[in-house]
What does this fold into?
Amino acid sequence: MKIWRHLLYSFIIWAAAFFLILILLLMPNDTSFESGAGGSFVGAEYEYSLESHKDNFVLFFDYLATQGGLGEDRYGQPLLPIVLEMFGRSLKIIVPALILSFFIGIAKGIFDYRYRRSKTNVLGRTATWGVLSVPDLALIIGIQIALLTLTSKGWLFHIDLFGHDSIDNVIMNVVFLSIYPAAYIANVTFQSLQKEQGLDYIRTAKSKGTPAFAILYKHMLRNGMARIFAHTNTMILYVLSNLFIIEVFTEYRGAAYYFYESLGSPSQFYVDQLMTGRVIETIAYAFFFTLLILAASIVANLAKAVAVPVKGGIPGE
Amino acid sequence: MNKTLFAGLIILAITVFVLIFGPYLPMVDEDLKAELPYRDSSGKLLPPPYPPSDDFPLGSNRKGEDLLSILVIGARETLLIVSAIAVLRIMLAFVLAVAAFYSRTAKVFMQIWNSIFSFLPSIFFVLIILAVPAIMFATHREFWVVVVLAIIEVGRVASIFNTSMHDLRARTFMEAAITNGGTPFTMFRRYYWPMLRGDLLASLSAEISRTMFLIAQLGVIGVFITQQFMSQLDRSYLAIDRSNSWPTLFATLRQDVYSAPWVPLAALVTITFVMLGFYLLAEGLRERKDLRMRRLQE
It folds into this structure.
């Protein structure tokens, strides 16, 4: 029963989050500009009125109702299929990145745990730690500059780093997206294994002669999964916020790229004219992004219910 | 003192040294003179950006200004903004966490706050909010940007504090303190506050590190904290950050990766170094706290 309550809670929070995003995106843009000689910019005054904010909401839902959907984009194409296509393009790198970082992260965590006593093993904790403490932006740009240098010296075949239509782009972006989250999950796995380590049931299992690998995989890891699943939401947020930077930076034209493109510009305007965003598009992308996070949290909750054996809490907590 | 904390303190010491004395060091050009044009040893004219050389230890940017000097001079602004965001966030989170510990309403508020803002990455929210004209044209835009960046993650930090207060309450010695007649106020002063004080410092370092990363990300997509609107050729106005804060070095990242990789590399190495310092500091402080808690239990 607990799981249903959890799902309901997730759903309500999702609705609230999406409503907050609507409030922000449908904020009225009534700005009066003060111009000087030759139409140069002197200043701008913004007046907020609850009335026009409400009007924006009414207009938005009216639009949805009369169009029977999202309507058309600025080129007269139906918007929904385009949004879905772009989203599919992004999912092509998000889903592999999520799966890879989850499983590689857990494997790396187990590796780190098994070789935790070796001081000389730089591939263990030190490597995980190194990736975690360096901003992944540095890793990504570092990798790019390294690849460009190698290619220009002729030591490496050409890899397409910018764009979205070649398989190189997909592979590189999956790699870029999974580096940091994998290290994050590895760290969580290591810590949760370490917490299980001293517990009584492990001692009992050892004294009964259970082989070490059986203790690790059958008992410690299964019990530790609860803690690992608690961190999946953070992992997804890392992947998405990186997705944004990566799509904009490498011109991988997916959902995050167009979400950014459709937003009103916070840094450019004309006198008497704001660079307002294409609100319908932005809202559509935001809707699917929040839906993705909702879906991921539901999957994580279901997986947790199946994979975690302990009922009524984790021993020792 | 553990090794992690020690390493973090060393990096902090170097950073503070640069903050205070940096601009007066001999190899730093305080006025940031643009060296244009520049001749190499054979007398050939070279356009900027210049690669690293004797005159420019880290190279120069597209205006011909020395990168090392920009990094040293920009350190003050960058760290000022980042720490302002982190301090404000920690203060608000602390108040919210303590309120949530004693009041159920505040607790629900904190949880909802945290869950709502975990439905999109912070950077999405930041971009949506910064494009609201009220903030775009605000007289003290920097101030509002700092407030926005601080507030978005208050819920997350507050729940970390709240969890550690609940962890403390579950300890056996807390029961003893309550049976001995501790009022909520003395309990807070004698038990919760000393523990939270350590947490505050560790979280402050961690948040400085996180915020530094967020403003670097914003820099990559051309959104800056301090900006001025400059008239463009097509009569539009574009926000340009004329300060020397580190994220501005990412403004032309896409070209630089090909033609002047030393510009983003210098900024990245500096940002990574400082972030690493604060990350080590945070981890070191947490390790120290864990050790103390274990000793208390024994």
Summary: The CA atoms of residues 109 and 145 of chain B lie 23 Å apart. DSSP finds eleven helices and four strands in chain B.
